[in-house]
Amino acid sequence: MTTLSAYISLDTTSRSIGADEVAALLQASAVQHGTSVSLTRTGTRGLFWLEPMIEFDTDAGRVAFGPLDPGDVRAVSTVISPKGELNTEHPAYLGLLDEVPEFAGQLRHTYSRVGVTDPLSLAQYRAHHGYEGLQRALSMNSDDIVEEIANSGLRGRGGAAFPTGIKMRTVAAQNDTQKYIVCNADEGDSGTFADRIIMEGDPFLLIEGMTIAGVACGATQGYIYVRSEYPQAITLLNKALATAYEHQLLGENVMASGKQFDLEVRKAAGAYICGEETSLLESLEGKRGLVRFKPPLPAIEGLFGKPTLINNVVSLVSMPEIVRLGADSYHALGVERSRGTLTVQLAGNVKKGGLFEVPFGTALRDVIEQFGGGTLTGRPVKAVQIGGPLGAFVPPAHFDMPLDYEAFAARGAMIGHGGMVVFDDTADMGEMARFSMEFCAIESCGKCTPCRIGAVRGTEVIDKIRRGEEVDAHRILLRDLCNTMVDGSLCALGGMAPFPVLSVMDHFEEEL
Ligand SMILES: Cc1cc2nc3c(=O)[nH]c(=O)nc-3n(C[C@H](O)[C@H](O)[C@H](O)COP(=O)(O)O)c2cc1C
Ligand code: SF4
Description:
The chain is an alpha/beta fold. The protein is about 40% helix and about 15% strand. The termini are far apart.
């Protein structure tokens, strides 16, 4: 009896649209056809419009079938022909996955294992270069590891794009017996799921990245602060942590190096502001998520007053490949001061939503049109909100911008965490502006006046404009208020909430 090797995603999105049911149907149909299927549950390839998808090993590579309707038993059972072979005549047959244009057009660098391996198999992780980065790091001195990260040009992927090497250098330079590595996995921005996909699809990569950061900075304890709405990521991370401890990849004597690094998962408090780094530290200490004044920087006085490196998931998971292959390999990708790859996440009214890893410098238009395929409704794209709820609404006239932090900033926009939410021409941009201000009013931690009071007044002023009350005067007032919030807020929630509002006033003037 032939055995077919099959792969189905276990990520939250795929499961929410029937991946588990498709897996069960596949096994049942194999039995009927006298075939056996060796099924591996992997992370997702990020091609959500093709999920639930089944991949099979062939001599030429992995071929795929998708999307498969879990309610359509016949569709799933006919993926395997009565002879026990793959049915390449099946309407959902996609051919070689590597040749699906939206996959072939990417550069899977940091996300190369996601969708390929069993996320909890340490053996498979190792077979795909896993732990080679840490192995090399342990043979280097800590300054050299930090310089490798600095020379790669890696910038923080959590939003502010601060150079990761500089932050690491500051923590490494602190002379303290206790230092911490904190992973910001709160992932609160609208339309973002890159952190979740890596935690569910390649959890050892985050563990390895944080261990490298610990060795480089001289930190012996790490915490992963995970969004509470990600129960599956929490479960998988905890299982991977247990395996890493079992194999001395964590603990008192990491890879027999004599170095210690311990790691724990912490469930987040469920507030947008708890993603802001100082608020996150308060929350980790068991307090209310209230923003701290800076200075002191967390790199000098962070968690429990100790030097702390706090980085986003994608920043940390970029480290093993940088150390394994050397800084130049990463620096060679990208443009100007934006090096390496960006994991773009497409959501909203888009035909082909999902995650796409591309080098910086790729044109925004290619992302939205070639990868995203335009809107799901088939209507023209009106705007794309990029960088989460504090990001500007970018009009099609600016779609020729390359993915480059500075190029975006020059147009009053930001890349942030790489989340893009697409809107078609039926969107009411005045309503979107109002929503942005109201979001800030609701999520404000309340510590500073421009944000706490400004966002409430801002929402009221927008309502007056929308009701047609003294429109010109209120537009002037709104801009003035936005500028006060930008200049006077303590953190980026109040400091950036005006950006979407201002972008609507600038690009969709007649709607607000
Ligand atoms: C209101 C607010 C929410 C934030 N939410 C997140 C988040 O969910 N995840 C994240 O990585 N960074 C978030 N940030 C950015 C963090 O404060 C910080 O810059 C980041 O964790 C640093 O890591 P990086 O240098 O690797 O980007 C947020 C910032 C603000 C102001
Ligand atoms: S800007 Fe808003 S969220 Fe940030 S510290 Fe001030 S009140 Fe808190």
